[in-house]
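Can't paste images in this forum, so I'm doing it all in text. The chain is below; anyone willing to post the predicted structure tokens underneath?
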Amino acid sequence: MLEIRQVVKTYGKNAPAVDHVSLSLTQGVVGLIGHNGAGKTSLMQMIATLTRPSSGQILFQGVDIVKNPNAIRQRLGYLPQDFGVYANLSALEFLQYFAALKGVRNPARLLQLLEMLNLHEHAHKPASTFSGGMRRRLGIAQALINDPDILIVDEPTAGLDPEERLRFRNLLAELGFKKLVIMSTHIVSDVASIASELAIMRQGKLIAHQSPDVFLQQARGQIWSAQVAHSDFEALSARVNVLQAQRSGSSVNLRIAHPHSPCADAALAEPSLEEALMAQRYASLEQAA
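Text version of the structure:
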């Protein structure tokens, strides 16, 4: 469905924000993971045809959208990280405005979206009265107006409370059965239970693209749990990668990423996805050094 070939994006004379990234994506939820400044937003903006690559190709169903952006715009939904609403418009009026912009003339579609996103009871209330989670849901509604094949959401759970985060994740998981959903985040738990693929970016480069199960399998045998005395903790943490440290009386409970047993009485532990990605990061940094 979507193929990214050696895409580069450079701003001025700075180092590339996106550095020769190649990806091939089909239906499902793809978690685009990386720290702030890793190049996630720049890549998504190029897929959404908001900016052009400095070089490389982006193909949607075989058509180069850099040369022909209209080939994807009618089949695309986009929710940017900083999504603003018109506070004086009601939820329904807001969707009517975007429907007009996108050429959608089916009023029933707007009511369907409001119900899907649990906003139907608030259809005639001004957006200025909405919580952060309700505004994000309204943002998803506008992104879905044209029933797109590709949905791009940039840090969609930022600022949401735990209940809204869960609601949002469940919605994206459901959409991923029929569409390609590209979701950027630096919070691994946001995609751990819903992503069919993870694409990891660091300093503009794509460093890994695999299923969550593959990351977990690669980390097995490298994650350890241990309990050490306070007096031993500092020396141990100086030579191994401590993922988590929790004080417990006179001891410290640790989770450690290491290729072999890091200390006496350490036990192998089943990795979480976040720990698996951290182990992968540490391993790549050590190889680079």
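The mean pLDDT is 91. The radius of gyration is 22 Å.
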